[in-house]
């Protein structure tokens, strides 16, 4: 802070001195060697001050542009993260739909397998019924044959098959 105050005081002094020397030169008066040295120092100081101001302005502008760029980067990052979150949500929704469809299909497959098993059991029951009927038919045929033999035996009195 003390340096900036000192620099301001020196700058003001040199500006005033530069104005006096300019008036003296405008009147056609000659400058002494020390006045010329001080005039050169004043001009140099003024140029350095202008250059420093230009550098400060450039620094401020550069800092503003960096801040703007950082803000744009943050905005793009936020937007990309939002899009990624949306994409992840949609992927999760799709995965849930896949799981729901899988569950539904497995349920239908289990139901179909159960129905096939029921049908196979019914077919096995019918096969057993057919075997039972065949056995009963065989028994009835044998009984009818025996009965026919008995009737023939009784009618012919011989007994026996022909």
Q: Summary?
A:
This protein has 162 residues and is mainly α.
Could you please describe the fold and organization of this structure?
It is a single chain. The radius of gyration is 59 Å and the shape is rod-shaped. By secondary structure, it is an all-alpha fold. The protein has two helices and no strands. It has one domain (2-156).
Please specify the SSE layout and strand pairing.
Elements: H1 2-26, H2 33-156
Helix content: over 70%
Low-confidence stretches: none
Count of alpha/pi helices: 2
Main sheet overview = none
Oligomer: single chain
Global Rg: 59 Å
Protein structure class? mainly alpha
Write down the secondary-structure element order.
HH
Work out the number of β strands: 0
Strand content: under 5%
Please give the alpha-carbon distance between the first and last residues.
145 Å
> Globular, elongated, flat, extended or rod-shaped: what is the shape?
rod-shaped
Overall mean pLDDT stands at 90
The number of domains: 1
């Amino acid at each position: 802070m003390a340096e900036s105050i000192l620099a301001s005081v020196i700058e003001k002094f040199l500006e005033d001195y530069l104005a006096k020397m300019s008036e003296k030169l405008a009147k056609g008066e000659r400058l002494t060697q020390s006045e010329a040295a001080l005039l050169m120092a004043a001009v140099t100081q003024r140029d350095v001050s202008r250059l420093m101001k230009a550098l400060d302005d450039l620094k401020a502008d550069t800092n503003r542009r960096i801040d703007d760029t950082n803000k744009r980067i943050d905005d793009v990052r936020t937007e990309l993260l939002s899009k990624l979150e949306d994409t992840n949500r949609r992927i999760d929704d799709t995965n849930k739909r896949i799981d729901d469809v899988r569950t539904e299909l497995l349920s239908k497959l289990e139901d179909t397998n159960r129905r096939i098993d029921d049908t196979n059991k019914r077919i096995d029951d019918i096969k057993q019924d057919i075997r039972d009927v065949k056995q009963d038919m065989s028994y009835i045929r044998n009984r009818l044959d025996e009965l026919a033999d008995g009737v023939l035996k009784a009618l012919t009195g011989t007994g026996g098959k022909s």
